[in-house]
Amino acid sequence: MSNLEKQKTKSSKETVNYDVVVIGAGFSGLYQLYFLREKLGLNVLVLEAAEGVGGTWYWNRYPGARCDSESHTYCYYFSDEILNEWTWSERYPSQPEILEYLNYCAERLDLKRDICFNQRVSSAHWVESLGKWRVQTKTGLEVLSKYMITAVGCLSTANLPQINGLGTFSGKIYHTGQWPQKSVNFEKKSVILVGTGSTGIQAAPVIAKAAKKLTVLQRTANFSVPARNAPLSDDFKKRFRNEIEFWRKEMLKSRHGHPWTAPPRKLVETDEDERASILNMAWRVGGLRFRESFEDILLDAHSNEIMSEFIRKKISELVRDPETAELLTPRDHPFGTKRPPIDTNYFETYNRENVELVDIRSNPIRKILSNGVELDDNRFIGANVIVFATGFDAMSGSILKLGIQGREKTKLADVWKEGPKTFLGLGVHGFPNMFVITGPGSPSVLTNMPRAIEQNVEWVGDCIKYIEDRGANTIEADKASCERWTKHVTAVAAETLLLNANHSWYLGANIPGKPRVFMPYSAGLNKYRAKCDNVAANAYNGFLIN
Ligand code: FAD
Ligand code: NAP
User: Fold this and answer.
1) Residue 90 half-sphere exposure toward CB, CA atoms < 13 A
2) What is the mean pLDDT of residues 407-423?
């Protein structure tokens, strides 16, 4: 059935039949479609809420939106053709460049004909009598398929805080994760920016340059390391093409899926002069590599404190006003235990005349008025625009919104009431033939995600091939495996400092009422891959096949 015919079914309420339905057309969904269609010859339909491909890079068009992974690593490695044809322009690609890249991949691999856009999935029920998933979208499209794969993203459900008076604001309100397609004009505007995570830290310097006034409302001070973005040299571009195999191997063997691994040295055991020299050099190089300059940063509290203190000192040097510098200095969590942002002139932005930092930890927002925000101490901050850079209902949020119901009408929301339970992040007991890409319990957000995505997509594709080759009807994670894996995910995190940031989104702590469970698998993508391979090599041990 052509894409056009599929679109027609939108209004006719006709049910369409497929082998596999994939939900989401970001990095994950696009590759999953390609793998299943081209390697297995299956009939696949992708349902996508947006009107185009790109996922994260379709929705997050806020000023300054840019990747923190380095460009030549933040891309597909499954296709040598694409690797050789595409050229990145900067050390870190900007949002428009990544969106262009994903559109290029979708065109190059002829993927768009199997994607139905503007189709937000609202329910997905397992129909026992048919041995299929019945997936419905908000516009009434209904799909029956043997397999369902959620590729809905870890960071795709925007968290817009429910603040009194939100609806009364007469200016414009934006969430960075739902940014409008046409550019927003900040000229002559007074802007309030709420949130100082990776997004707020990227957006603040760019908005500050464009707006009349920028007031940043900060709840928690954050660590940030300079990105040191720059155009890629012709020499690098040429060298990269000859060294693709090297980069691939480096990423596959590393814990984070980045092409570097911390050298075998402990910060706490390195003498003071040497450590200062290494840290200063790492600061000059910038980016996520900084954290990897020693191997024990997330394992040893003392080492972490030395690195944290190094960044605190840098903040005090970068920000002229000592009071503002102190307010910007994180003291409530160790560096790296929340997703570490990298920045371009973030701290320096507070030296501008038109920028003000306001602490809403000690003086929270009381309500939003038609022309600004009122704080608890009655202080009024006027604004024409409010930008919420307040993050996402991460990892489980978008999956739970699918309205998934498994065997015996069991709701996924009930099974995950006390936190997500999965086997390898890929399967859930009671939900046959359902696979989750970069789900809770997989390394996902702790990695350079295209590597985690490719691993998950290929594992799921191979698994479906195994089931089809045997003529089996269903595969389902067994209950004991889910219980064991979920405990293992928590135990592994507990061996690190990651649980020391008790308000991080890794734990779901940013969403009121969300259970506090450390969701990503922190033992490393390399170790995780070995475990997944082992399960596959042992006839999908831990899954029930019928
Ligand atoms: P997404 O890109 O989130 O795509 C999921 C798709 O599913 C979306 O298109 C969405 O519309 C669709 N969808 C969701 N729910 C439904 C539904 N109910 N019905 C139909 N469609 C639905 N990762 C890194 O590794 N490095 C980085 O530097 C980095 N930078 C990031 C910057 C930002 C601003 C954000 C938000 C995330 C960043 N990430 C980064 C993580 C990023 O999400 C992943 O790298 C990657 O893009 C995820 O791809 P995905 O396809 O799994 O999910
Ligand atoms: P985030 O890290 O969750 O940060 C949200 C910010 O909003 C925090 O400062 C948070 O404060 C604040 N906040 C949340 N709710 C609030 C409320 N009710 N009132 C006041 N403040 C509130 O979200 P994000 O910055 O969008 O980043 C999410 C993730 O996306 C990142 O961690 C990263 O994985 C990815 N990302 C990556 C990049 C990149 O790589 N280039 C860029 C952007 C995003 P608290 O800290 O107090 O909760």
Assistant:
1) 15
2) 98
CA angle 210, 212, 214 (to 5 degrees): 85
Helix, strand, coil tally for the chain in percent (to 5): 40, 20, 45
Is the CB–ligand 1 distance for residue 454 below 6 Å?
no
Mean pLDDT within 333-361:
97
CA of 240 to the centre of ligand 1 (A): 26
* pLDDT mean over 13-23: 92
CA distances from 39 to 375, 411, 450, 465, 535 (A): 57, 33, 19, 9, 21
Pairing mode of beta strands 132-137, 142-150 = antiparallel
pTM summary value: 0.97
DSSP 339: P
Q: 161 in ligand 2 pocket by Cβ < 6 Å?
A: yes
d(CA 518, CA 491): 10
* Minimum-distance ligand 1 atom for the alpha carbon of 28: 51
Burial 468-482 (b: 16+ CB within 10 A, else e): eeeeeebbbbeeebb
Nearest CA residue ID for atom 12, ligand 1: 24
Confidence of residue 120 (pLDDT cuts 50, 70, 90): very high
Domain boundaries, the chain: 3-157+394-474+526-545, 263-296+299-333
**Domain 3-157+394-474+526-545, classified CATH 3.50.50.60, yes or no:** yes
HSE-up of residue 514 (Cα within 13 Å, Cβ side): 23
Mean pLDDT of 433-438: 98
Q: In angstroms, rounded to a whole number, what is the distance separating the alpha carbons of residues 101 and 304?
A: 37
CA distance 284 to 314: 12
Q: Which helix (H) or strand (E) holds 72?
A: none
Percentage of residues in the chain having pLDDT higher than 90: 97
What pLDDT digit, counting tens, does each position of 121-176 carry?
Answer: 999 999 999 999 999 999 999 999 999 999 999 999 999 999 999 999 999 999 99
Q: Residue 181 Cα, ligand 1 centroid: separation in angstroms?
A: 17
How far, in Å, from the CA of 376 to the mean position of ligand 1?
35
Any ligand 2 atom below 6 A from CB of 219: yes
Structure tokens at 183: 């550019």
Q: What pLDDT is attached to residue 6?
A: 52
Measure 495 CA to ligand 1 centroid, in angstroms.
28
Between CA 77 and CA 89 the distance in angstroms is: 18
Q: Is the CB of 151 under 6 A from ligand 1?
A: yes
Query: Residue 70: CB within 6 Å of ligand 2?
Result: no
Kindly give the residue spans of alpha helices, DSSP state H, lying in 60-94.
80-85
d(CA 113, CA 46): 10
Q: Please give the distance, rounded to the nearest whole angstrom, from the Cα atom of residue 195 to the centre of ligand 2.
A: 6
